Structure formats: C-alpha cells, structure tokens
Amino acid sequence: MSPAPVPTDRPRRLRATAPLRRLVAEHRLAAADLVLPVFLAEDATEPRPISSMPGVVQHTEDSLRAAAREAADAGVGGIMLFGVPATRDATGSGATDPRGVGNRGLTLLREEVGDDVVVISDLCLDEFTDHGHCGVLASDGSVDNDATLQRYAEMAVAQYEAGAHVLGLSGMMDGQVAACRAALDGVGATGTAILAYSAKYASAFYGPFREAVDSQLQGDRRTYQMDPANRAEGMREALLDVAEGADIVMVKPALGYLDVLADVAATVDIPVAAYQVSGELAMVEAAAANGWLDRRRTILESLTSIRRAGAGIIATYWATEVARWLADGTQ
Ligand code: PBG
C-alpha cells in the first residue's frame, strides 16, 4: 500500500493558536458599531421587565438615563429609542407631540449623552396608534400610504426638534425617505441623517417586541412589510431608499436575512446596518437559560455572522454587554 498523499495546502496552520486566529480574523466586532435599542414607558414608575425579552426592560426616565450612561461608558456607538405611550389614538398624535413619550425620551437622551453617542429615533406610528398599525387608516381599514407620509413628515420635524441625530424610518411606507428628507430640509434640518429600514420583513421574530411596546395590533403588517420569500425585492427597496436620500440603509431581522444583507452591502455605497430583533434575542436567551446553548459564544457568533454578511452597524439588545466583553478583549 502506498502512503497517503501529504497535503501541501494546510489551512489549519493559521488556526493553531488563539493569537494566530485573532491575527488572521477577517471580521471583528467593535463597540462603536453597535446600537442599543431602548424602551421608555410613559407610565412606568420603576423599570418593568419584558418577560419575553430577558434582560430588557421598559424604562422610566431615570433608568433610561442610567442605561444611556452605561452604554456611553462602554463605548456603544448609538442608542435607538422606542416610546411606549400611556394613551393612543387613530392618528398617533402622541408621535408629534413634543411632550409625547418618544420625543421627550429623545430630548432626555441628548441631555444625558450629548454628542458622545448617536441618538436615533424610531419614526413610525405603530406605538402611538390605537389600532397598532404603522400608519393611518383609510375608510376601508387599509393603511393609507400617502396620508401616512404626511404624518411621518410631521414626525420627522418633531424628532429633529427633540434632538435626534438620526431618524430611524421603520414604517415601510413607499416614499417615506423622500417625504421625511423634504420635511427636514424644509425646516433647515439638513444635518439630520436618515437611517432607512429599507428591507424590513413581515417577521414572526418581532413577537417579543410587541410585548415590549404594548402593541395594540390585531392582524399583521403584510401589506407594507416585506414578504420573507423575497430577496431581489430587498435590494429594490434599498436602492429606492438610496435614491430618495437615505444616509444609512438597514436590513431587518438580521440572522434569517443575511443573504439580503450581503446583497445590499455589496451594492450600495452608503453604510449598511442590520437589526438583530427581539425574537433573535429571545431564542438565544431561552436556550441558554435551559443550558442548551453557551450564551456568550452564541451571542458573539451571531453578531460576527451579521458582521461577516456585510453589516457595518448592528442594532442589538446586547450592545452594552457585548461592548464590555470587547473591552475585556474576550471576543
Ligand atoms: C415597528 C417596529 C417593530 C420593530 C421595530 N420597530 C415591530 C414591527 O414592525 O412589528 C421590531 C423590533 C424587534 O422585534 O426587536 N415600528
């Protein structure tokens, strides 16, 4: 019997030690690229845990300030605010009220972090409407795209006035980027950037978020959010948003949509973000609590995968914790 041929190509050489693996790693996580989504509840008198999102709470103003400070100290790059109002109505009037919980929260965050961390709004009506949809309804009950754009334009100005650095347009109405850009420019807010949730899919992975914002929604968002079956359409949506003036485009959710993320990242020449959503957190936390997954390794692997697929910016509920791990050098 002749001896087995000896391989000449030996990729294992570069995997031999931790320093070698670190040296040749193609992708690395950085705290500055992470965005922490936070919830501020208008009627909370103490932080309220969200049962389906272990470790995440609905904040009071005081606890929000503390969380923002901790994120800033850990080097987190951005904070994205969701307001949970105590009352709602058909047009989501709380969204454009300067004293509404979302706008108050933006002002409070700016007071706390100044320009040290990027303060990002959520520009969508779903938290503020009594029917829970992301826009206003037509008489037949459907979501009225163009009437909603009017409300989004008003919201853009209110969020700029409240102090947001970046507006996160998450409603998936056609033309929302152009409408908000025009409204901002119209009031001289030319320096306020737009992060467009370009490819936002109608996903079951948002389930826990609905608890987080006390969502009033009956039914679903399939007439405006994207069909999970569609990949090419994700690119089409991103290109439309770039043409309308988006400064950053986002794909959401993250882990199930890495193909879309990779397509978008390879094509657009502006920063690309991904949102690791509530259900992605919930799955890992539940499995880790059962001892079925190594929590820390799973979190880092999922974030590294999102980075590898092309996200320069990653929104994750684990942002502060992961930023601390990265500072320890324990990636
Ligand atoms: C809606 C909005 C949603 C999320 C962020 N913004 C929910 C939805 O579209 O139903 C989901 C975030 C998450 O699941 O973590 N404005």
What does the model show?
The chain is an alpha/beta fold and 331 residues long. It has one domain (28-327): Aldolase class I (TIM Barrel). Helices cover 39% and strands 15% of the residues. The protein is built from eleven helices and ten strands. The protein has an eight-stranded parallel β-barrel, surrounded by eight helices. Helix 2 packs parallel to helix 11. The radius of gyration is 21 Å and the shape is globular. The relative contact order is 0.14. The mean pLDDT is 97. Ligand PBG binds at residues 122, 124, 126, 134, 170, 206, 209, 221, 277-278.
Shape: globular
In CATH, the homologous superfamily goes by the name: Aldolase class I
Oligomeric state as shown: single chain
Fraction of residues in H or I helices: 25-40%
Spans of at least 5 consecutive residues whose pLDDT stays below 50 are none
CATH fold assignment: TIM Barrel
In CATH, the architecture is Alpha-Beta Barrel
Each distinct ligand: ligand PBG
Q: Which secondary-structure class do the elements indicate?
A: alpha/beta
End-to-end separation: 46 Å
In summary, what is this structure?
The protein is α/β, with parallel strands linked by helices and 331 residues long. It is 39% helix and 15% strand.
Give the tags.
331 residues, alpha/beta, TIM Barrel, 8-stranded parallel barrel, 10 strands, 39% helix, binds ligand PBG
List the helices and strands and how they pair.
Elements lengths: L17 H7 L9 E8 L6 E2 L7 E3 L1 H14 L3 E7 L16 H13 L4 E6 L21 H18 L3 E4 L6 H11 L6 E8 L6 H6 L19 H13 L3 E5 L5 H10 L4 E4 L2 H12 L5 H15 L3 E3 L3 H9 L4
Parallel strand pairs: 1-3, 1-4, 1-10, 4-5, 5-6, 6-7, 7-8, 8-9, 9-10
Antiparallel strand pairs: 2-3
